[in-house]
Amino acid sequence: MKVTLNKREYEVIEEPDRHIVVATRKEVHGWWPGRRECSAERMLINPYNGCGIGCFFCYSLAFPGNFQVFREKGVVVVARDFDRTVAQQLDSIDLAFPGYLSPVTDPFQPLNERYHLSEKIIRVFVERNIPIEFVTKAKVPQEAVELVKLQRHSFAQISILTVNEELRKRLVPRGASTSTLFENLERLTREGIFCVCRIDPIFPYLTDKKGKLEDLIERAKSSGSPHIVASVLDIPSRIDKGVFSSIKAIFGPGVESDYRRLYTERINGYFHARIGYRKRIFDLLRNICEKKNLTFALCMEYELVEGEWRGLNREFMSSRNCEGIDIPVYGKTGSLFHPLVSCAGDCLYCLDPECGIEDLAMGREGAKKDWKLKDYRRWSRTGKLYE
Fold first, then answer.
1. Which pTM was predicted?
2. What would the DSSP string read from start to end of 331-372?
3. CB of 326 closer than 8 Å to CB of 320
4. Which helix (H) or strand (E) holds 125?
5. Cα 322–333–147 angle (5° rounding)?
6. pLDDT on residue 387
7. Which residues are registered as beta bridge partners of 158?
8. Residue partners of 193: CB distance under 8 A and separation at least 6
9. What is the pLDDT of residue 307?
10. Which member of 22, 134, 237, 319 has the lowest number of beta carbons within 10 Å of its beta carbon?
11. How far apart are alpha carbons 333 and 335 in whole angstroms?
12. What is the CATH code for 23-47+80-325?
């Protein structure tokens, strides 16, 4: 089998999942323009476009470019030697934020067992003393654990949707088992690594029962996680028919009808559950976390107010940063990076940047919120951080 990408034809490799390997000019970059609730800056890294974990609700299916090869052909696009590309880019800047591996598809999906790009990229960051985080629904490789524990601000996020293993199999057919996911938290915590438990997303009528959520949060706490991040499933309008069709096939026409009645709010190209339902869930979760002495935040949750979207973290978040950990800006001294200032890294709410980079004071009206490699290089040239 062959597929065409950017007018070039590639032979598909069948194992362990169907994929092609391509040269890439991708650059590390900040959060995407438009909707944003992410309080801290991150450098986003996606070594795999497409994912073998098999979540029918994955929003990357709505993305353009390489992701459409995965949606239409079931073929993952692997970025050849992306770790070397990332290393060259990091060596070209004097200012860095934590790496985020990966915001779109799982860094430890089955293909990573063949190419190990995620571990290689983690090593690139750690060797330069730049923090990096990963988020996964898979078993964390021990090599990744050993690397991450070497850098004090690096951390992990483990996505656990339910304590019901049979339900987990239907939602995430090729992810790690529920017990393995909690073991991830335990292994990482034993190594002194900060671990977030993500209940992300919550599925209305399926994983939203109070008792089950309390059980999940209690197990997360017992496994070492001090912070919970949550969201309710949202559905990209570009793939809504496919998502509703999957819900019908997996859970039956009654559940599909319930979802169609609930998902009536459209914000920036996504269908959201009605705001009253979502706020009840978030209020419940925050109260559970407070009783258990855990911090809590939301991920990409919004409401419409007079036709404008507004983030819900200002109402429900109990931590300073949405990921529960404060990480300052890092700057290079010699060949290594070091935390430069005493800031908490909460750029989205910053008004008076201690780092000296006015661009990052995103609490100011009209401030830009999406950064690219050229911006990191520009800030490196200004020398503001060293004044």
1. 0.96
2. EEETTEEEE-SS----GGG-SS-TTS-GGG-TTSTT-----B
3. yes
4. helix 117-127
5. 55
6. 40
7. 136, 197
8. 145, 148, 149, 154, 155, 156
9. 85
10. 237
11. 6
12. 3.80.30.30
CA pair distance 370, 92, nearest whole angstrom: 19
Q: State residue 73's pLDDT score.
A: 93
Mean pLDDT, consecutive 10-residue stretches, the chain (387 aa), reads 90 96 94 83 96 94 91 95 98 96 95 98 98 98 98 97 98 97 98 98 98 98 98 97 98 98 95 98 98 97 91 96 96 92 88 86 74 92 55
Residue/partner pairs of 338-345 with CB below 8 Å, 24 or more apart = 338/129, 339/153, 340/385, 341/385, 344/320, 345/39, 345/40, 345/41, 345/97, 345/321
Q: Do 101 and 45 contact (CB within 8 A), yes or no?
A: yes
Residue-wise over 355-383: b if at least 16 C-beta within 10 A, else e? bbbebbbbeeeeeebebebebbeebbeee
CA geometry: angle at 110 spanning 104 and 112, to 5°? 75
Burial bucket for residue 13 (CB in 10 Å: 0-12, 13-18, 19+): middle
CB 294 within 8 A of CB 227: yes
Residue 308 CB neighbours (<10 A): 9
Say whether 265 sits in a helix, a strand or coil: strand
Domains of the chain, residue spans = 23-47+80-325
Beta-strand pair 308-311/336-339: unpaired
Classify residue 384 by its DSSP letter: G
CA geometry: angle 61, 62, 65, nearest 5 deg: 85
8 Å CB contact between 328 and 316 = no
- Tokens standing for 354? 């201690």
Kind and range of the H or E element at 89?
helix 82-90
Tell me the C-alpha to C-alpha distance, in Å, between residue 16 and each of 52, 76, 177, 361: 9, 11, 19, 45
Residue 386's pLDDT is 43
First to last CA, the chain: 57
